């Protein structure tokens, strides 16, 4: 309940945040804090310094960016839900985010936080994977972007370098006529997905991303390939956990979770395809 | 090692020295003696600690006090104004929306956020909105009724007396006529009830 | 003799203003001058010897005032008492735990028996400092083998927890007729055997448990603020058994308590610890308030029965014999009344609303390396009702008789009351007999069936199937035994509860005419400040707002037995009623004197005492109270003041009953269960306050449904609590419930003048089997006849998968027709 002691600094700009991060070996960024603060309270994380980026204006905001959308890292789940145009452009977004946490968590939890924190249990990264999101990163050498697909190394570990900050994500427009769907069954206590699937299906375009099943959220590429090769949703879904070490806990062992993943993949595909 | 914090709580400005690890809920309960906000869990789930920060419902156990520097916070103690209950408080009382009362402040603050954005929610929308507020006593049924009643009171009488989201100003009074938004305690009203019930 | 009282009003509660404005006074809100904060170091092992504890590093950390271990208090504090030794075994012997008693100490001494047992306490100026320093306490542990399963703990070779409890057996107990039951089952046309698990639950009141102890050097006495349902009992147990001091040396105060559901009845280590520590600190108060995760390891769990049933029945579905063997997990050490729950409150209820002619129940209460288990909402009656209602549905399944029809054929008829179960289930070993005093079960059943549209169910089933769902409907026809309890039955010479169970009420009317009721119950969400005021207000004819209800402080108040067991209305309310009657008697006598009338000519009505037939010759209660206070002219021999105390000992328990019906949909693929409708028809007798009664039923149902579908405390074989926080223990949320549909029948209790029975636990007792029966019904096309709780998606999926793999046999298990037709 009581975190271990730490120092706290507030950054007013990205550059300042980067500088503060570089000054300490053991600093962590805090944005919404909805994932980090629970870890601090159980002393599972004990950084020496927290760098609060919550007030950095340039990290907020949703804007058109060519043929896509740029979503600032500080964008909360609530802000996403409130953005009618964005939700209309990506129908699965509203469904998936309404499943995340609860009203209070959605008020504070941020997109950037979900990506940078890389908690394998989170849903949002799977949504990002299905939408071909790119992670926007700023470091000493300036801004770079990297596909979200491949950004996670493992639980709580990303390709973010020391002295780098996630500043947002960019998601390209969907191919015309593509359908989307989110289908999930949650673990009752935590609300995290036992198997949550984000699907985008269009002409020659398939993205299927899975949360809660593997060690990290993943693109079910075998499913995508099967579908692209003409398989129907059910046949393609049989590949739902191919190549994955399926997670197991008291709520869903690997056998059930695998079965569930297949069901959710199939359902997501059917809805994305059928409209 | 403490740091300075400037925070507005229920319309009153405070300047305090706090440890960085101090949670907002501890600041409210212990440093400001506003014990109406409660702690019910340690995994940021039960919502008993919910307050409004710049108008948004937030779990104050999952926010550092320093993160609220410069913010305007509203707690349950700030909902009634000049002896007039907020429609949500009136609704909870009217509809027996509380038993032990421990989850109630957090429940009311979340409902305040809901009603500020959706003044006429369906029961499903209400239940979805309070997923982050656990009650073990009521089975939620009368809580939903209470929030519905608050929406009705507000619709009958005018705008929701929603606390500030920009810091510093006094709360606007709960508008609405006396019937719709009963002030409390209301001895006359209860006397009437008793008369009907004991004959 | 029953007095007709009108149905209680839906009066808004008097206590609400402080709660809706954040002005409640809960334990963790209390700040005392000089207060220190305690953080308890708890065992990470489920079973271990303590070789040594090094507190030296912790003691020097910033802000630390003291660090204590069990050794420091060994000579000052006795082990906690077990106050219910589970007497009353049939056959005349005192059963129970007399020789196998093992209870906790304020801090463990030489060993720990469950993960979370407290071994050291750090006390500091701030909570942060206490928590920081707690991490510096170093314990030298010797881990020992563990056992967590109640049945496996009794097997040869299981790790032995206590030397005095071979095979980890704490209590053996039985009730009923073993031979008659064996014979009935042997001869039965149909016999069903089933293993049922009533899984361990963590009650999770949102206000956790805590205490502040303060020793006063002036009087060498203690005040303990505690989140307790039983402050007077705590004072008694702590003073007499733990501290060994006279009773007046300890004052117990329960402030506002945010829910309890039984967990706050008991005498806990921390109650003694904070008081003792305060004395060691020279009188500085010591506060301890558990975190939620700590609550999961330091506060009692509920249920945890493994039960084997054998049911004998006729082909027409009439049960002829029920044989039950239950292994009841009591945890690593005994909680205050742990042994009483799976015995008296369970076994004696195993005929329910039915006329089952032969019942035999054997209970083995066992020690395991888990948190202690004790009463949790319903306390034994949910476990009994689960056995009965599953049994009835299994009989329906086996015989092909509709489950509704099975109930009808087995119900006790309305003329069967008062009913003493033929195998003496309600007789304690010293011969005191209880009777189920009243009951009329079919109207409630009929009403529930009508509300849910039982007759149209097949149509709904087909429609759900088109949506990929199995629709199921499940019944629970229950009785409950509450309003506990007649002292001569429950007490140490009877069922073995260590004292009595009457209730006290004191009424004083001030010279202003305002009334103060001091009640011995301990409201923690039940609204006694309103309901008790209503009883007094109605009786005296004064406004409800002129009656102040006080409770939960042992200083200067009559002893009260607290709030649990749905007893506050039937026992506490009757104590208040009785005190009112005494006040009225004195008022009549004084008014007669004031009016120069004869006392025999007086009546009390409409808020005053008046001469019969001359309503203008009246003195209001306020006038009488003034006269009684000033004492200028009292009749000879009359003492001043209107101040009457009543102690009410209930002549019997009370017997609510009803029918609950749950409707569920099961996702055919994922196994997820949704509760889509819930109907409850309950008979709780007269109601003091309609709103409050409905609220209790809502809340009770939610908890019972929680057990059926979502909740379960899970230990691994090493005794680690895998469901260690709300992240893994599913406390139900608002969006998981439909609107609950309530109705009632009203059969006033014949044993008390208010006609009330009690309602706090009925919802929980009824609902769990209603939901399980519904899910099993939904799955019956697959030939599934039982699935253990909680019915999580994984569990249901696996049952479906296994059933489909076995060909989904219809072995008497095709969907039952809702029309009551018998299928072969």
Question: How would you describe this structure to a colleague?
Answer:
Chain A is an alpha+beta fold and 275 residues long. Chain A is built from eleven helices and 14 strands. In chain A, 56% of the residues are buried. By secondary structure, chain B is an alpha+beta fold. Chain B has six helices and five strands. Chain B has a five-stranded mixed beta sheet, with helices on both faces. Chain B starts with a strand and ends with a helix. In chain B, 64% of the residues are buried. Among the domains of chain C are: 390 residues, Aldehyde Oxidoreductase, domain 4 (2-Layer Sandwich), CATH 3.30.365.10; 147 residues, 2-Layer Sandwich (Aldehyde Oxidoreductase, domain 4). In chain C, the strands form six sheets. A seven-stranded mixed beta sheet of chain C has the order 3-5-1-12-9-10-11, with helices on both faces. A five-stranded mixed beta sheet of chain C has the order 7-15-14-13-8, with helices on both faces. Chain C is globular, with a radius of gyration of 28 Å. Chain C starts with 15 loop residues before the first helix and ends in a 19-residue tail after the last helix. Chains in contact: A-B, A-C, B-C. Chains B and C meet through helix 2, helix 3, helix 4, helix 5 and helix 6 of B and helix 1, helix 15 and helix 18 of C.
């Amino acid at each position: 309940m009581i975190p271990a002691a730490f120092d706290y600094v507030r950054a007013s700009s990205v550059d300042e945040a980067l500088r503060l991060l570089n000054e300490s070996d053991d600093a962590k960024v805090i944005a919404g804090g909805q994932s980090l603060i629970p870890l601090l309270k159980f002393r599972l994380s004990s950084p020496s310094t927290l760098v609060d980026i919550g007030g950095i204006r340039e990290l907020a905001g949703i804007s058109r960016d060519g043929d896509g959308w740029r979503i600032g890292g500080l964008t909360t789940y609530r802000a996403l839900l409130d953005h009618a145009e964005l939700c209309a452009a990506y129908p699965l977004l509203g469904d998936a985010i309404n499943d995340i946490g609860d009203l209070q968590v959605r008020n504070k939890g941020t997109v950037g936080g979900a990506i940078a924190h890389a908690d394998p249990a989170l849903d949002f990264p799977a949504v990002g994977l299905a939408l071909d999101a790119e992670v926007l990163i700023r470091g000493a050498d300036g801004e770079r972007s990297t596909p979200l697909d491949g950004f996670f190394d493992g639980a709580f570990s990303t390709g973010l370098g020391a002295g780098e900050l996630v500043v947002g994500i960019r998601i390209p427009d969907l191919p015309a006529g593509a359908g989307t769907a989110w289908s999930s069954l949650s673990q009752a206590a935590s609300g995290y997905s036992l198997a949550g699937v984000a699907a985008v299906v269009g002409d020659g375009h398939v993205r299927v991303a899975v949360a809660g099943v593997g060690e990290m959220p993943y693109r079910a590429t075998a499913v995508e390939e099967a579908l692209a090769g003409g398989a129907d949703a059910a046949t393609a879904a049989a590949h739902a956990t191919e190549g994955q070490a399926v997670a197991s806990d008291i709520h869903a062992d690997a056998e059930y979770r695998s079965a569930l993943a297949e069901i959710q993949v199939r359902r997501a595909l059917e809805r994305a395809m059928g409209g | 090692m403490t740091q300075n914090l400037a925070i507005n709580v229920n319309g009153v400005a405070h300047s305090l020295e706090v440890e960085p690890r101090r949670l907002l809920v501890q600041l409210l309960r212990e440093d400001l003696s506003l014990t109406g906000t409660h702690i019910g869990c340690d995994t940021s789930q039960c919502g008993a600690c919910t307050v409004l920060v710049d108008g948004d419902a937030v779990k104050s156990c999952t926010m550092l006090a320093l993160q609220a520097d410069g913010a305007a916070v509203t707690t349950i103690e700030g909902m009634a104004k000049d002896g007039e209950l907020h429609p949500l408080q009136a609704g909870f009382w009217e509809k027996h929306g509380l038993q032990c009362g421990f989850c109630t402040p957090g429940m009311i603050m979340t409902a305040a956020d809901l009603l500020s954005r959706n003044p006429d929610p369906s029961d499903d929308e209400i239940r979805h909105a309070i997923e982050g507020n656990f009650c073990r006593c009521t089975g939620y049924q009368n809580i939903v009724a209470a929030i519905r009643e608050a929406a009705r009171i507000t619709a009958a009488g005018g705008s929701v007396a929603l606390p500030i989201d920009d810091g510093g100003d006094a709360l606007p009074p709960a508008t609405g006529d006396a019937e719709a938004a009963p002030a409390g305690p209301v001895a006359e009203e209860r006397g009437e009830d008793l008369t009907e019930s004991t004959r | 003799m029953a007095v007709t009282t009108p149905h209680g009003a839906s009066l808004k509660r008097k206590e609400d203003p402080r709660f809706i404005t954040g002005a409640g006074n809960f334990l963790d809100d209390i700040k005392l001058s000089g207060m220190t904060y305690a953080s308890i170091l708890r065992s990470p092992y489920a079973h271990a010897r303590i070789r040594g504890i090094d507190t030296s590093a912790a003691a020097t950390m910033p802000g630390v005032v003291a660090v204590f271990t069990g050794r420091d208090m060994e000579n000052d504090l006795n082990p906690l008492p077990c106050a219910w030794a589970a007497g009353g075994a049939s056959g005349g012997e005192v059963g129970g735990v007399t020789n196998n008693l093992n209870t906790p100490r304020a801090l463990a001494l030489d060993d720990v028996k469950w993960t979370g047992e407290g071994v050291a306490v750090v006390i500091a100026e701030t909570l942060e400092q206490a928590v920081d320093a707690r991490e510096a306490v170093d314990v030298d542990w010797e881990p020992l083998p563990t056992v967590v399963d109640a049945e496996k703990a009794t097997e040869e070779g299981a790790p032995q927890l206590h030397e005095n409890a071979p095979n980890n057996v704490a209590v053996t107990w039985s009730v009923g007729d073993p031979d008659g039951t064996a014979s009935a089952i042997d001869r039965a046309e149909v016999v069903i055997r089933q293993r049922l698990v009533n899984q361990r639950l963590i009650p999770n009141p949102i206000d956790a448990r805590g205490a502040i102890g303060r020793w006063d050097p002036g009087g060498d006495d203690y005040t303990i603020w505690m989140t307790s349902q039983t402050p007077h009992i705590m004072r008694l147990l702590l003073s007499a058994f733990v501290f060994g001091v006279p009773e007046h040396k300890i004052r117990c105060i329960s402030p506002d308590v945010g829910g309890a559901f039984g967990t706050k009845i008991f005498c806990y280590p921390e109650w003694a610890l904070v008081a003792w520590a305060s004395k060691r600190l020279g009188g500085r108060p010591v506060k301890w308030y558990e975190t939620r995760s700590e609550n999961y390891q330091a506060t009692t769990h509920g249920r945890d029965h493994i039960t084997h049933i054998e049911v004998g029945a006729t082909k027409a579905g009439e049960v002829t014999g029920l044989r039950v063997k239950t292994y009841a997990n009591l945890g690593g050490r005994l909680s205050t009344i742990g042994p009483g729950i799976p015995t008296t409150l369970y076994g004696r209820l195993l005929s329910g609303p039915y006329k089952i002619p032969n019942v035999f129940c054997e209970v083995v209460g066992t020690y395991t390396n888990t948190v202690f288990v004790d009463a949790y909402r319903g306390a034994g009656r949910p476990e009994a009702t689960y056995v009965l209602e599953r049994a009835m549905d299994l009989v329906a399944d086996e015989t092909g008789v509709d489950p509704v029809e099975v109930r009808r054929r087995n119900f006790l008829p309305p003329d069967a009351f008062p009913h003493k179960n033929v195998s003496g289930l309600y007789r304690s070993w010293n011969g005191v007999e209880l009777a189920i005093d009243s009951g009329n079960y079919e109207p409630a059943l009929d009403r529930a069936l009508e509300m849910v549209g039982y007759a149209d169910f097949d149509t709904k089933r087909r429609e759900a199937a088109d949506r990929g769902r199995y629709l199921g409907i499940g019944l629970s026809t229950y009785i409950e035994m509450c309003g506990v309890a007649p002292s001569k039955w429950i007490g140490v010479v009877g069922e073995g509860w260590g004292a009595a169970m009457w209730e006290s009420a004191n009424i004083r009317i001030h010279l202003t005419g305002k009334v103060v009721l001091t009640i011995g119950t301990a409201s923690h969400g039940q609204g006694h400040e309103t309901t008790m005021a209503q009883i007094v207000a109605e009786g005296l004819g004064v406004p409800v707002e002129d009656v102040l209800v006080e409770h939960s402080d042992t200083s200067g108040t009559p002893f009260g037995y607290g709030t649990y067991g749905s007893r506050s209305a039937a026992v506490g309310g009757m104590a208040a009623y009785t005190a009112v009657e005494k006040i009225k008697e004195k008022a009549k006598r004084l008014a007669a004197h004031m009016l120069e009338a004869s006392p025999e000519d007086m009546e009390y009505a409409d808020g005053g005492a008046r001469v019969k037939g001359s309503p203008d010759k009246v003195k209001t209660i306020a006038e009488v109270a003034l006269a009684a206070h000033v004492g200028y002219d009292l009749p000879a021999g009359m003492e001043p003041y209107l101040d009457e105390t009543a102690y009410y000992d209930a002549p019997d328990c009370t017997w609510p009953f009803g029918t609950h019906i749950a409707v569920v949909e099961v996702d055919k693929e994922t196994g997820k269960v949704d509760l889509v409708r819930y109907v409850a028809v309950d008979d709780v007798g007269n109601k003091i306050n309609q709103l409050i009664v409905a609220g209790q039923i809502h809340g009770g149902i939610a908890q019972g449904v929680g057990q059926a579908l979502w909740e379960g405390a899970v230990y691994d074989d090493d005794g680690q609590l895998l469901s260690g926080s709300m992240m893994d223990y599913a406390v139900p949320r608002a969006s998981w419930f439909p609107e609950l549909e309530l109705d009632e029948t009203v059969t006033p209790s014949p044993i008390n003048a208010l006609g009330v029975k009690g309602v706090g636990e009925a919802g929980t007792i009824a609902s769990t089997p209603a939901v399980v029966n519904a899910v099993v019904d939904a799955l019956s096309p697959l030939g599934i006849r039982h699935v253990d709780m909680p019915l999580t998606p994984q569990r249901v999926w696996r049952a479906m998968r296994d059933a489909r793999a076995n060909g989904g046999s219809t072995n008497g298990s095709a969907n039952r027709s809702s029309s009551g037709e018998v299928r072969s």
